[in-house]
Amino acid sequence: MQAMFHKRYFPVLGVILLLIAGCATQGELRLDDPDERVDRALVRAAAEPITTQGIQVAVLLRGGTDTDFAQQLADLNLLRGDRITDNTIALFVSYDPQYSALRAGSDISPYLPNERLEVLRTTVLNPALRAGDATTAVTLTLAALDADIQANRRLENQFRGWVWILLGLGLLAIFLGPKLLEWLRWGAPGQWAARWWERTPIGREQARRKREQRNAAAQRLCEQVAAEVQQKIAQHAPIAAALTAQLAQLGAQPAVLVHRPADDPALAQAWHDLLRAYNELDRTRERLKHTLSVTESSLREAAQVLAQARRSLGQTSGKQQVVGADVFAELTRIEQAIAALALRHQNTLDAGFDVQALLDALHAVGVASAGMISEIEVIWRRRRPKAFAAQRPPRPRTTLPWRSDSAAPSGSAATASSDTPWNDPGEPGWQSGESKAGGDW
Asked: Under DSSP, is residue 363 helix (H, G, I), strand (E, B) or coil?
């Protein structure tokens, strides 16, 4: 009799232990800000509503891109393979380069899919970063993430309320007798109703409509980003010529995708891959734009330094020694070399090279013009050291990060971040877990 008593009440003890374990779960904020760009107290206060829900929050303000972000998450033991841990939200901000990213684990991705993370990154996080207020950027983003989680959990909380009711009925059944408990156990009304609904025509139609809505949303977002990237590229003729092939290859893919069935389960992922390819093309455009700007700035500086050196060397006063004709002849030679270099640069822009060839040509011009500036400074410093020190104070040189093989994207949506699936919280097994968004700010 006593043994039967223990068997009947053992499920009750198990439920109580599970409830105690759930209540004890508490999230934690991981804040890594070596340059102290944010107010830690304000960030901790903004993250508290999220951590009290048992969610881990990581806020990382370090230099780097998505690869560095992943490495820092791994250092904090928040990465499993190449995926963020299930119950974690991570916010990453880099100032060199200007890059931001958001990631959400598989337990949270149903509330924060890829589309929503990208919207929060571009409309909440990035504007505040560009305004120079990192604290506001981080706190507002955390608040927006918490609001989305709370809003999406309302229905889940209602469902949990019904679970509590069913749990109470189950406990009541335990006390009323084994026969009623056996009936509830084998009946499993909730599971039976769910399985039955999935097999009905209405249930199948609802699933089909959800897929259509998801695919349409992915298409709208991709088309919007594609139009923005095409507009940016068209504003710079040399850059547009270099990116013509990649742009044409990406532009041909929507015509193929729109003819696929509207409820195709893989269509949203295909639009997502195309979106990532356009984002990569936009980053290539930014690299080309920066390289072109630095190269032309170096050519202008070479001409300006030459003019300053000529004026300074031509002046004679007091005990200053007269500069010989050989020095001015050397300056004339450098002037001719600068003119030839400027002509070579213009011919490069007119030639319509592809991305890597244009980067190589601009790099060569930039390095040559920097060398000519150094030659002029050596002559000027040797002949007029005081005037040189007064008119050419030490200044940092612009780096030339142009010869990078990563500068040229593949131009194919099938190879651009295809390992990052489109997130679909509605169907288990559709995606492999987390959701994320990242890019320049």
From this structure: helix
Read off the pLDDT of each residue in 24-53 and give the average, rounded to a whole number.
89
| pLDDT tens digits, one per residue of 339-377 | 888 888 888 887 777 788 888 888 888 888 888 888 888
**Among candidates 99, 100, 72, which has minimal Cα distance to 88?**
72
Q: How confident is the model at residue 318 (pLDDT cuts 50, 70, 90)?
A: low
Write down the residue that tokens 């100032």 correspond to: 95
238: in domain = yes
Name residue, tokens 């004026």.
Answer: 311
What is the DSSP track for 192-244?
A: HHHHHHHTSHHHHHHHHHHHHHHHHHHHHHHHHHHHHHHHHHHT-HHHHHHTH
Q: b/e for 134-172, b at 16 or more Cβ within 10 A?
A: bbbbbbbbbbbbbebbeebeeeeeeeeeeeeeeeeebee
The verdict on residue 336 lying in a domain is yes
Answer for the pair 288, 355: CB distance below 8 angstroms, yes or no: yes
Four-residue CA torsion sign, 308, 310, 316, 318: positive
* Whether 189 and 287 share a structural domain: no
Domain match, 284 and 162 both: no
Q: Is the pTM of this model over 0.85?
A: no
Query: Are residues 347 and 228 both part of a single domain?
Result: yes
CATH number for the domain harbouring residue 140:
3.10.310.50
Cβ–Cβ under 8 Å, residues 115 and 431: no
Whether 26 and 162 map to the same domain: the answer is yes
Please indicate, yes or no, whether residues 309 and 265 belong to a single structural domain of this protein. yes
Identify the weakest region by mean pLDDT among 9-23, 65-79, 144-158, 380-394: 9-23
Query: What is the predicted pLDDT for the residue at 173?
Result: 61
Q: Are residues 116 and 245 located together in one domain of the fold? A: no
Total number of domains constituting the chain? 2
Q: Specify whether 374 is located in the same domain as 299.
A: yes
Range of the domain at 298: 224-315+323-409
For the chain, helix, strand, coil in percent to 5 are 65, 10, 25
3-state secondary structure at position 376: helix
Residue 51 burial (C-beta neighbours within 10 Å; 0-12, 13-18, 19+): middle
Tell me, what's the pLDDT at 312? 84
Q: Based on the domain organization, do 107 and 158 belong to the same domain?
A: yes
**Residue 7 belongs to some domain of the structure:** yes
